[in-house]
C-alpha cells in the first residue's frame, strides 16, 4: 500500500522558517518526479515546487521563488520543502504529490 506522509507544518511568525518532509512508504521516490502543492482556505490547490528524479532540476511558483527550496534524499525516500521568509499568504495546507499519489497534507499557518 502506497502512502505519502507529510510532516513539519505548524504555526510560525512572518519571517520565520519551516521545513516540510514527505516520506513515502510502499513506493520508491527515486523513480518519480515529485511536487509540492498547497491549498489555502477558499482557494484552489496550487503548484508550489517541483523536483526531478535526480534532484538536479527544480522549479518553483513565482510566489515562492527565492524563499522556498525543494530537495530530496532518495536513500531516505523523502522529499523536503525548506520554507524561509514566510509571509501570511503562505498559510495553507501543503501536499506532497508523486505519480498519482497524494499525501494527507500538513497545515502551515503564518501569523503574528
Distance between the termini: 40 Å
Amount of helix: under 10%
Strand content: over 45%
H-E order: EEEEEEEEEEE
Biggest beta sheet summary: 7 strands, mixed
The tally of strands reads: 11
The number of distinct helices, counting runs of at least 4 residues, comes to: 0
Could you name the ranges where pLDDT drops below 50 across 5 or more consecutive residues? none
Radius of gyration, in Å, reads 13 Å
Structural class: mainly beta
What would the average pLDDT be, to the nearest integer? Answer: 95
General form: globular
Task: Write a structural description.
With 112 residues, this protein is mainly β. 0% of the residues lie in helices and 51% in strands. It has strands at residues 3-7, 10-12, 18-25, 34-39, 46-51, 58-60, 68-73, 78-83, 92-98, 101-102, 106-110. Strands 2, 4, 5, 6, 9, 10 and 11 form a 7-stranded mixed beta sheet that branches. Strands 1-3-8-7 form a 4-stranded antiparallel beta sheet, with no helix packed on it. A hairpin with a 6-residue loop joins β4 and β5. The chain is globular. The N and C termini lie far apart (40 Å). The model has no long low-confidence stretch (mean pLDDT 95).
Amino acid at each position: 500500500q502506497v502512502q505519502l506522509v507529510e510532516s513539519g507544518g505548524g504555526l510560525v511568525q512572518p519571517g520565520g522558517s519551516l521545513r516540510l518532509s514527505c516520506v513515502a512508504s510502499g513506493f520508491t521516490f527515486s523513480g518519480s518526479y515529485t511536487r509540492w502543492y498547497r491549498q489555502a482556505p477558499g482557494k484552489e490547490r496550487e503548484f508550489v515546487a517541483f523536483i526531478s528524479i535526480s534532484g538536479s532540476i527544480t522549479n518553483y511558483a513565482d510566489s515562492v521563488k527565492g524563499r522556498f527550496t525543494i530537495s530530496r534524499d532518495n536513500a531516505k525516500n523523502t522529499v523536503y520543502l525548506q520554507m524561509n521568509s514566510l509571509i501570511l499568504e503562505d498559510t495553507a495546507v501543503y501536499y506532497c504529490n508523486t505519480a498519482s499519489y497524494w499525501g494527507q497534507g500538513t497545515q502551515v499557518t503564518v501569523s503574528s
